[in-house]
Every structure is written in structure tokens, then in C-alpha cells.
Amino acid sequence: MESYDKAESLLKTYKQEHLLGFYNELNTNEKEFLIDQICHINFKQIFELYEASKTDEVIPTNLIEPLPYFDKEKLSKKDFDFFTTIGENSIKNCEYAVVTMAGGQGTRLGYKGPKGTFELDIVPKKSLFEITCDNLKKAKLLYGTTIPWYIMTSKYNDQQTKDFFNLKNFFGYPKESVYFFTQSELPLIDISGNLILEETYKVKEVSNGNGDVFRSMKDCSIIDNMKKKNIKWVFFSGIDNVILDIVDPLFLGITINSNFQAGSKTLFKKDPDAKDWVFARKNGKPAIINSCHFSSIMKKAKDENGNYLYRDINILAHLFSMSAIELLATKTFPYHRAFKKNTFVNDEGMKQVPDSPNTFKFENFIFDAFEFFDNISLLRVREQDEFAPIKDFNGIHNPELAKYMYEKKMNIVNK
Length: 415
Ligand code: UTP
Prior knowledge:
The chain is α/β, with parallel strands linked by helices and 415 residues long. The chain has helices at 2-13, 28-40, 43-52, 77-92, 128-143, 158-167, 213-219, 222-228, 249-258, 296-299, 322-328, 383-386, 399-410, and strands at residues 64-65, 70-71, 96-101, 119-120, 126-127, 149-153, 178-182, 185-187, 189-190, 197-199, 202-203, 205-207, 233-238, 262-268, 277-282, 285-290, 312-321, 336-340, 344-345, 351-352, 359-363, 377-381. It folds into two domains: 1-40, no CATH class; 41-409, Spore Coat Polysaccharide Biosynthesis Protein SpsA, Chain A (Alpha-Beta Complex), CATH 3.90.550.10.
């Protein structure tokens, strides 16, 4: 009863009494679940985030400067071989690990089940997890080492993900080299500023963005695990880019040789006016900046050699040293607001599936990590070699195009 009073008073303070709207219809277990959940939600935090997210960040353009990058296509053979050898040696010395961030909701794709279990329609069909694993199996053959693979899940998809790996016998990869860890969650807020219910007895909470990865790695003892293995470099990517090279000795070698603690692969932004996240230096620190902050002159600005200055975009392919990860696990990341489609329970207790985005989600982004360093290495790669993500069925990043690009890269000819 004491907990009920606490929950009721919290809801009253934050004007969220509707969350107990079905309380009297619930069974004892459901009542306990709901009250416990409400007592553990940080309402202060979520409403502060909601209020703060109403105003956009303003960045004076004189605080934005270009960041140097390597262009894979323009490297001399000598440099290419030099960097690649450094990276290969690190991989062969078992210093390299991969983190796949698969805790997202995949709301745009709207596929039932973890996004990593979505199958690309190739022959034979392959799930996104298996495609990722193929890279690691190939590396095992090339370098003679089993690269440890760490997979970040959400509370929502963790069990389903693990079940899938068991069902598929870990795609033939050594089970003892695969580790799962789970990230945190935050409630969603609808357009009226209210938290929503997922079930009549459950407030909807969802994963809080891929930038939660470092803290989750610490909390789940993944950092300890990596340190015990003497891992020095960790590659981070999402689960949905079917052609990304996640074991790339060139990228690793460039970053090691630079003596920087972090690096990122980029893509050249062809359309200066397209909305993208662009690499640049902000307030003296490396950062990824929303292209809306660039003036039309900056969007087309070139250096003395005719190379564009602000045209490298983020493809979620990042490298961090072990000490960088330890540092980042102690840092607070900003939250970004995204507008996403989420099912909810309406006032009549019925589940509603919206046709369009209806809720604000608060997410940490992994790329905010770069601002904690003085420098990062950037390697510009080609779209046809490394960028074919699956985001939704009808948009530009659809499964059909991803399939086409995958087959092209793998040299698969369809009869
Ligand atoms: P996206 O931001 O594209 O999100 O994530 P998503 O979940 O795939 O899809 P939408 O936006 O809901 O449609 C890029 C990568 O980051 C991971 C995703 O799983 C994906 O691999 N991610 C995202 C997390 O691991 N956790 C999160 O909280 C969010």
C-alpha cells in the first residue's frame, strides 16, 4: 500500500495519473508490476529532457572548422600497405574486438523481432546477424584469430536475440567468443507530453540510444572482460549495414599510427544540401554536426587543393581504444530527441498501432563520444564498398537496395 501511495503521489506531481487508469482491472501480479515500475521511473529526468529538447542547439559557424581525413581511394600503395600491416599485426595479436549495437527498436522497418534477425533475401537467405558474423569468420581465416564479438541488446529484444543465436548455433562462430550485454531504457512521451502505456499494466520504456553503449559495457562487466583479454581496439557499428567492413586493418592501422584514441569511417556527402550528420571540429573538438548548422557557403567550401571541407558523413563505423572506452563509460552524454512510431494502449484499454510517428524518444548517440577527444582519425570510404543499411521498406535505405549492393559487393550474379 505504501508503494501504491508513493506511485500515486509521483504521478500526481508529474500529472501522469492516467498511467493508473486501468489499475482496478489488473490482477495482483500486474498491480505489483505496474506500481514497482512507476516507483522506479525517473520522472524528473524524463520531463527535464523533454523540456530541454524543445529548443535546438545553436552553434555559431565561426566555431566550426574542418577535420582532416584520409581518402581510401587516394592513398598511395605504399601508405595503404604500411597502414594495413599495422592493423593486421594488431588483429593477429588478438588486440581487436567488435561491438555490434543491436538494441534499437527498428521502428521504421516495423519488423517483428530483433532487427538482427531480419533476413536479407539472398540465396540462401541470411539474417543481419549472420551477415555480420560472416565478416568475423572471414577474419578468422585470414588472420588466424577469433575476434571476440560483443552484442548490445535491449531489455526488449535480449532474450529473443539469444534464442536466435542458439537456434542458429551461433552461425558456426565459437560460442565462447560471443558476449551479450543489455542497455538501459527510458519512457516515451506522446505529443501531449504524457508517458504512454505498452500494456494496461506496463509503462512503455524503450532503449535509450546507442550512445549508452559505453556505460552499459561498464555496468555489464564487458570492459573488464575485454581488459582481461588484453583487447586494445574495439570497433563499433550497428546491425543493419549489410556491406560494412567491420574488420578493416587499414582503418585500424591508420588510427593506431595516428596515436589518436578514436576514429571513424566516413562517406563523401554528394548532395551539399542533403540532411546529414557531418564531421567537423566544433569548439576545437572533433564532432558530428547536423548539416542544418552549415551555411550554404560552408557546404561548398574547399581547401587549397580543391577538396571539400565539410562533406564527410557519419556511417556508424567507429573505432575506440580501450582507454577511450574506459573514459567514455564515466561520461554523461547529451540526449537527442527523435520522433518515432510506437504502439500504445488507448483510453479504452485497446492497443493502437499508429500509421505515423506519435512519440518522442530520448537517445544518446555514440558519435557524441568524439567531443571528449582532441583528435580522431577519419577514413573516407566508398558507398558501394561499405554503406547499405536497412532502415525501412519504402525509404532510400530499403532491403531491396541493400540486397542489390550486397550481391554486387560479394560478386553474386543472379540468374
Ligand atoms: P537507428 O538509430 O537507425 O535505430 O540505430 P533503429 O533501432 O535501427 O531503427 P529506428 O530508428 O527505430 O527505425 C542504428 C543502430 O544503433 C542501434 C540499432 O540497433 C542500430 O543497429 N541502436 C539504436 C541501439 O543499439 N540502441 C538504441 O537505443 C538505438
